[in-house]
Amino acid sequence: MADLRCEIAGIKAPNPFWLASAPPTDKAYNVERAFKAGWGGAVWKTLGEDPPIVNTTSRYGAVAVNGQRMVGFNNIELITDRPLDVNLMEIKQIKRDWPDRAVLVSLMVPCEEAPWKKILAAVEDTGADGVELNFGCPHGMSERGMGSAVGQVPEYVEMVTRWCKAATRMPVFVKLTPNVTNIQAPARAAKAGGADAVSLINTVNSIVSVDLDSMAPTPTVDGKGSHGGYCGPAVKPIALHLVAQIARDPECAGMAISGIGGIETWRDSAEFIALGSHGIQVCTGAMHYGFKIVDDMIDGLNNWMDGKGYRRLADFHGAALANLVDWQDLNINAELVARIDQDKCIKCGLCHIACQDTAHQAIAVSGRGPARRFETIDAECVGCNLCAHVCPVEDCIAMTPVDNGKPYMNWTQDPRNPHASAAE
Amino acid sequence: MADIQAGRLSSAELAENFADVHRPLDRAGALAEANRCYFCFEAPCVDACPTGIDIPGFIRAIATDNLGGAALTILKENIFGGSCARVCPTDILCQGACVRNVDGDGPLAIGLLQRHATDHLDPSVAHPFARAPETGKAVAVVGAGPAGLSCSHALARRGHNVVVFEARGKPGGLNEFGIAAYKLPDDFAQREVAFITAIGGIEIRYDQQAALDRLRQEFDAVFLGLGQGGVRDLDLPGADLQGVQNAVDYIAELRQADDLASLPIGASVVVIGGGNTAIDIAVQAKRLGAEDVTIAYRRGPEQMGATPHEQAFAQTNGVRIKHWLQPLRLEGDGGAVQAALFTSAQNGAEQSIPCDMVFKAVGQTCLPMADDDLQLADGRIAVDQDGRTSLPDVWAGGDCVAGEDLTVQAVQDGKRAARAIDLYLQDKKG
User: Fold this and answer.
1) Domain span(s) for CATH 1.10.1060.10 in chain B
2) CATH number of B231-364
3) Which of A201, A225, A261, B219 has its C-alpha lying 20 to 30 A from B176's C-alpha?
4) Which residues contact A190 (CB under 8 A, 6 or more apart)?
5) Cβ(B233)–Cβ(B427) under 8 Å?
6) A422 pLDDT band (50/70/90 cuts)?
7) Which residue ranges does chain B devote to CATH 3.50.50.60?
8) Residues of A in contact with B99 (CB under 8 A)
């Protein structure tokens, strides 16, 4: 059994699987159920100043792809709509009842020092392990000068972070919005402000669909729609990239990372950790299937780590960063060619038509009916992987290395590059 | 005493037994199934469809909620897409060719998807196809079954006028008189004919005994979609006993019955034959309340004309299939059949199966129209690859010509002949 205990910015938890600040962590009732189910921590749904905000109906939109529901998900919900003292009381009770779990509290108040000081003191009194500054929400609150309206201005990020660090002994996490051109700017600002950790990504600005009958974006509120925050499995690639951007930035070194974005499985989690996350947070997966998904996240991560000989999370934390390079450092002499396993091929022809219509005309077809055969034309194949991706049969098309005898050479060394430094 | 009775089951039981054998897909089911389609390049299922429907094309249209487009994609190649969705032996056609048979997940339910699409054709549109301007040409079509009406529809689309001469009092051919009732319930055959003829330019005359020489004089061209009016004889001692009859006659009677409880059926029934008709009569007998139904076939399961799917269907309906039984004679008492006797083709032993009724289902034959110049081949009308007969202005298709005896093949024959007739009429001046 691997040791799944995780520590982020001094906060300890029995496992790296935390619930993100969102509807699943809005009340003691939900968080209690989550902890019973086995989640290692929870970031309480964002608290704000009283009076509480008011939400609309409906609030959620979703994207289904080929019958797979909620591949993408979005919301136009705001921060908690319950009174501050009710939330604080429940947080205190939860932390008292579940001392081994990480309990963080997400916060969002106007961009002035006094309200931040005031709410931090109140949270400190609950015994919570830390706070997460919500500079991420891209809808609703941002129109009021909060959420991503702060996160998109590095100077504000730094300023508020500094206020908070000065006002509390609790570790401060800064939650970043992906709705920026370069994630390193707000991340470095958080670091400069003294943040102990960054959490990312918050949701992506989005309109999930248009109802073509009512001609309104969804989700629709009395005939109108508004842009919302996009999340779910569809955003995972974006999140992985942004997490890695921060993890490999020397200027952000020393700041912990809590990875968020489309995580639903142990494998997703392991990928985030391999790219530098110290722990991960989940929302959509739990909203889709309930808290029970954490069973397989714990079990699967354990089994995978055992199989790889990793004893603790630190053993593979950031392990993939060494292999993440800039494009110009890739080996331009490496060569692959598609190999089609004729025994596995079901003759659907998807590889052929994809290559023929949209790539390099490198897969030939011969014969008809059950006798038809698809084969790579090696001289035309550029090893792009398209055929292997469209092939519906597992392991039928293998991208096979070609031994061309050429040494490593990157673009900066390539004589075909007019700006190359001299080869050799 | 032969035990032959009407009303063995209650009307509620009969209604259930003769209701739609396949439950149609709902929207969610259709979307899930449509999304399983790989959208193959030059898909094998299309090659396997005698009418060449763009199957991946219509399935993709279902998946995108373009049901109207899906229906038209089907109907433009096969105007009988609705009945073919219900009666085609898809296991040996499109679904048999699906690449997903190979990867182990099972073929797409193409028949059910085709039905979903055609069932959802926009009912507010009277007919989805428009006629070309009138050509002034007139074509006689003999037989208002799938071949004849497929040809008629395709000719009407091209602007020709068609008169259909039908021997029976109703259109539809085998869809109306021959297919098992639970495959085309709710008067589907008649509704489909009404849809097909709604294009206009098609007049159907009933109870007609047309003479070919007169049709050739009166019309610019003739298409023969005669079907198989004759029944292959089973020359067996005792074949004239009471309770012995042709399966096709009984099925036609069943299909036309207002009240299934009025049909007399034996307690024990023996069916002699191995084709789909044998399956259809056996299962329908069982569903009418026969207690014991046996299909006796002279060879093995691989040689049966009925598809493996149909054989399994009969067996799951409680029908016993006995192979390698060569019929010897029928025995009776007081003029009514009492037992069917067979010789085992494996060991030569005699075997007697007691029964109250015997259905003969050993095949049907074409009864071609008398004309000295109409050449035949193996008892059917000889045609070239366009369906043209030895007479230059006469085409034929469907079960009266060589080839697979399938509704979908008949539709293709009619469609192909219509194309050839159209070219012929264009060349024929005046």
Assistant:
1) 20-119
2) 3.50.50.60
3) B219
4) A157, A158, A161, A174, A176, A198, A255
5) no
6) low
7) 138-229+367-427, 231-364
8) 346-348
Specify the pLDDT at position A180: 96
Interface ipTM: 0.86
Return the pLDDT at B372.
Answer: 77
User: Are A266 and A300 spatial neighbours (Cβ–Cβ below 8 Å)?
Assistant: yes
Which of the four CATH numbers 1.10.1060.10, 3.60.15.10, 3.40.50.150, 3.30.70.20 does domain B20-119 have?
A: 1.10.1060.10
Question: Which of B31, B32, B38 has its CB closest to that of A348?
Answer: B38
Q: Quick one: pLDDT at residue A423?
A: 47
**Closest-CA distance of chain B to residue A91, Å:** 42
CATH code of the domain occupying B138-229+367-427: 3.50.50.60
The pLDDT, as a whole number, for residue B122 is 76
Q: What is the pLDDT of residue B271?
A: 98
Locate the chain A residue with the closest alpha carbon to B48.
A369
Is the pLDDT at B429 greater than 70? The verdict is no
DSSP label at residue A267:
H
Alpha helix locations (H) across A23-80? Answer: 28-37
CB contact under 8 A, B102 and A347: yes
Min Cα distance B294 → chain A (Å) is 37
pLDDT recorded at residue B175:
97
d(CA A40, CA A17): 5
Instruction: Please give the backbone phi and psi of residue A231, each rounded to the nearest 5 degrees, phi first.
Output: -150, -165
Q: Note whether B41 contacts A353, CB cutoff 8 Å.
A: yes
Catalytic-role residue among A137, A252, A345, A391: A137
The pLDDT of A147-152, averaged and rounded, is 92
**Cβ contacts of A387 within 8 Å, gap of 6 or more:** A338, A340, A350, A351, A354, A355, A359, A363, A397
Closest CB from B31, B97, B99 relative to A67: B31
pLDDT tens column, A389-413? 999 999 999 999 999 999 999 999 9
Residue A137 annotated to the active site: yes
Q: What residue in B sits closest to A393 (Cα-Cα)?
A: B103
Burial class (CB in 10 A: 0-12, 13-18, 19+), A33: middle
**Distance set, CA B9 to CA B224, B286, B295 (Å):** 41, 11, 22
Answer yes or no: do A350 and B40 touch at CB < 8 A: yes
d(CA A385, CA A351) in angstroms, rounded, equals 10
- Averaged pLDDT for residues B155-167: 98
